[in-house]
Amino acid sequence: MYYNTTLILILFLLYIYFVKSIHLNSIVFEYYDLGLYTQLTKDFNDYSIKNNLNITLELTVFSQTNSTVLTNGDRVTIQTLLANKSKRYDIYLYILTHIPEYGEHLMDLKEYVSPDIIKLYSTEIFNETCYYNDKIPVNFSFSVLYSNTKLLNKYNCTIPEIWEEFLNTLQIVLEEERKLNNTNLSGYTGLFGDDEGGSNTIYEMLYSYRKSVELPYPDLKSPEATNALDKDNDSIYGLIYFIILTTLSLLVVLSSFVIN
Known about the structure:
Keywords: Membrane, Transmembrane, Transmembrane helix
Number of strands: 4
Low-confidence stretches: 1-16, 232-260
Structural class: alpha/beta
Number of helices: 11
Transmembrane segments: 236-259
């Protein structure tokens, strides 16, 4: 009798777990697993338990540490899954650079998100860069500039706020350090990779050269863009900009997701 009761209880719990509960499977390709999506998954599951939603989100992460698919295989994998209308994953997370390839599969989630929440992130720059066919991403990212305050203080320099100050400070520090035979010092590491990260850096640089903060992104043929490239082409690291700009498309890197 005890075993029959136990068996019935197990079957009942399995029924609740697999039939009455909702399981969502998500997948993300990241060059570096920074734990962002793992934390988002944990936060959602905690929220689901607290509010008795009976929904469990599972996350599969592919990164450099556990997969070799990230060269080009990540986009191929997603394209294959979506093209075949695979039901294996419910949520796909990826960088916005590839959104033109997956955009037709995107589901508009605005009707499921409170307008008050959207307003928290609704800024001019967000509205210009974060929407695709009037659909919103799950999150957005931005870059920051770190300064070596020890070197800045050493040469009585302040943290630069505009590119002209940045270039002048860069030149001062590098020239003085080279006098001390410190030839291994890099003046600026701007993430100029041969991927979307490099184009993102360039796009941010061009955006910072607009005439005022109220203006949108300058056109690539605008005087502002020409001025930016002319200045940087004469700078210590300008040649890097010039070479990369001729080979990369300029796209903003954000994370987005799609639901089958």
